[in-house]
Amino acid sequence: MSTKFTAVLLISLCASMLAMPDANAYSEADFQTAFQSLRAGSGNEERAAKAFQNLLSTEPGQPLLMAYAGSATSRLAVTTIFPWKKMSYAEEGLAMIDKALILAEKEPAQLHGNTLQLLEIKLVAASTFLAVPEFMNRHARGQKLLDDILVHPQLSTADLGFRGEVWMRAARLAQQQKRIDDAKKLAQEVIRNQAPQAEKAKQLLQDLSA
Questions:
Q1: What is the residue range of the signal peptide feature (predicted)?
Q2: In CATH, what class is 3-152?
């Protein structure tokens, strides 16, 4: 695992953290704190993983917490030089995400703020799958999950920040795959909707036109 894994994952993960339903046993403030540790990047991997694992312990079957805990756990792979530990962290994290996806499908109407929890989990999963090394054979599934989000009928009612994150992640993937027209269209969608990622989309358009 390389620092590129950390960088790609940090860019990709959803940054639109909204109020959780009152039915949850944990507080949104604690969730936000854990997320900020995850987003902080290099040097914060262990803190982020521990924070999400602690949250998950309050609701062991909560799929959104499980997805983020899995993503954070997989990032621990960059904290060790030992190949067997790298694989152990990555595989443990990916297994948690796989389970979170299964659990989320059983409650497809659950919301996280204005966004379907299932869609957010799919974005966490897609971002993580696309960030791990290709030999782990997750990239195709990551792209499939991202495509599923893009065509989901309730994406249009999701929080604008979440939609912007989806469009930007898809645009970057299209850029990587040399699908320049698709990347431009997705970046333009961010700008057209005035999503919080609009400045990043403008920069991406400049890069694509260079």
A1: 1-25
A2: mainly alpha
Instruction: Check: CB of residue 43 under 8 Å from CB of residue 53.
Output: no
87 Cβ partners below 8 Å, 6+ apart? 77
Show the CA angle centred on residue 165, arms to residues 162 and 167, nearest 5°.
Answer: 110
Domain ranges in the chain? 3-152, 159-210
In whole angstroms, give the CA distance from residue 192 to residue 177. 23
DSSP state of 141: H
Q: Is the per-residue pLDDT at 41 higher than 80?
A: no
Integer CA distances (angstroms), 125 to 77, 80, 122, 176, 193, in order: 16, 23, 5, 18, 25
Question: Which of 9, 23, 30, 10 lies closest to 112 in space, CA to CA?
Answer: 23
13, pLDDT greater than 60: no
Query: Could you tell me the pLDDT band of residue 125, with boundaries at 50, 70 and 90?
Result: very high
